[in-house]
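Standup, Tuesday
Yesterday: got the pipeline producing structure tokens again.
Today: sanity-check two examples.
Blockers: none.

Example 1:
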Amino acid sequence: MNTAELDEALAFACALADDAAQRLLGYFGQVEGERKADGSLVTPADLEVDRALQAAIRARFPDHGIISEENSALYSGEALCWVLDPLDGTVNFVWGLPIWGVSIALVEQGVPVVGVADFPVLRQRFTARRGGGAFLNDRPIRVRPDVRPDFNALIGLDSRAYRRAFVNTSLKVRILGSAVYDLLMVARGSEIACTQSAVKLWDVAAAWLIAEEAGAAIANAEGPPFFPLQPGSDYKLVRARTTAAASRTLWQMVEAAWQPRARAAESK
């Protein structure tokens, strides 16, 4: 895709996010979640937004593929494919916490080239296109430069990571309840690193690009790589532990500090 095509796709993704945000706000604080086979929650809000996003994409780009948390996750090798998470942070959403949002990515030849993540209660929209930088509410963002990993710096974990591992570091831990938002907090410099222990493709597709464009080092520390997407793969079956940090040195520091609970106990 050339620059004009990327800009068009980004504008379309922002329009999708506008519609999704209004639909989600209409449900916030008024729905209960149901447990899916994988243990995660789903609400009527997830399902309505997923249907609306897919219908809009198919009407505008009928030849594009779509991978969605709430629908098909099979990648058939399309040159252009949208990756959707209609509601990231569903548990927060159900319990009335404001850290939740919609994540929309466009992948070209298996690699993210457009990303939008919108958190409507917080009034925060993060955007990026490949080679164009990362933005929060249209203002450029970058990872925190030249940060020292001392006790005043923050690292984001998910609750699974907190239960299954010991991170041997002086950094202060924060659990925000949204994989997307944790990655974005690294991108904007509010955290110097985060690790998410069991993410799927739609949890990271948009935020991965935004974090990269903001200067973050990001990679899967455990599990197969997400990118480039592999034709024939069912991404409902693919999980990974993804770590992002303000620099490659900090990424390596986080991984050196990561100890599964059993190993941590043995080392004492």
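Example 2:
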Amino acid sequence: MRVGIVGVGWFGFQPEVVDYSFREMMFKAAQRAYEDAGGLDPRSEVDAFVSCQEDFWEGISIADEFAPDPVGGAMKSVYTVTGDGLQCVGQAYMMIRSGLFDVVIVESHGKPSDVETLNEVVFTATDPISLRPLGLENVHALAALEARAYMSKFGVAEEHLEAVVEKAHKAGVKNQRAVYASPGKSRSATPVVAEPLREADIAKFVDAAVVVVLASERVAKRYNDTPVWVDGVWWSTEFSSLEFHDWAFPLHAREAADGAYTQAKIADPYKEVDFAEVDNRYSFKELQHIEALRLAPRGTAKDLLADGAFCPGGRLPVNLSGGALAEGVPFEVHGLARLSYAVGVMRGEVKAEVDKAETAVVHSWRGIPTATSVVAVLRI
């Protein structure tokens, strides 16, 4: 049984959403998703709801208590996942494939603007014995170590990071959600945050909520004439202790991609995938993740990017949205942000420079200090 995306709604994607609480943002996104799904009634037509959030980001213990009401799930089956929104899609996918559910709602929201001690919150996720006592003042130092390891091993120069940043901002101009898009932005003109990373290499945060409606093949066309099918979704977590994981290559992204490709029966991603939305919350991560997703051999993403292969209109456009560098990172919503943009391109609602939009791969990483990736394969 196939699982289809029949409705998508989003709200926010602003540096600070002042006039709405996170619950109101969820409500707005849900309204739009249900309208997109042909006016679906969440009270009578939905079998279950899945919400992806994290108590630390919310600043509220047992924050999932706030999940049901804003999306119409009060007194119904509501499941919560402490992970990226794309992991929720994986949960919904399994629920529908079980045959016990026909319609499942996936929701994720984030208000980074409410968090006053972000550095401290992130460090609560690090190893309490080997890393947290270091008391690093800059959380991006962890990403900088990965960047240096990757760049040294595969001959990636700062000019290659410049190319990623330039591509992201140019592409972002055509994305209405890309509030940080700044064509002509010079990476070298921005200050160093943690060598080799400059300010332009690091995505800023953004407040947002995204809701996605998934349905089984037997009912999908009741809600949408052109469902976008989820033909594979997989996630993987590498070693939880940073000192034991591969700093130069994200094995978690490779494992997640291989699992999703196996489900979707994709043998050669570079030839079979039409475009990709990958996590680029750090510029070097776009190159890393392209290679981890087998869209380029290890160490060659920089060269293919220079040749235009991953640019809009290229052989395999990557991040037509501009990705997180242009759009921002809304905490656990990031995977759904990448997914919702890909769905828009595949439906033809987003005018993008891509030769074909029949098969897409979507990727998200939970960010520093995690080693968790999720990959989904979409077809239309």
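Quick observation on example 2: The mean pLDDT is 95. The first strand starts at residue 3 and ends at 14.
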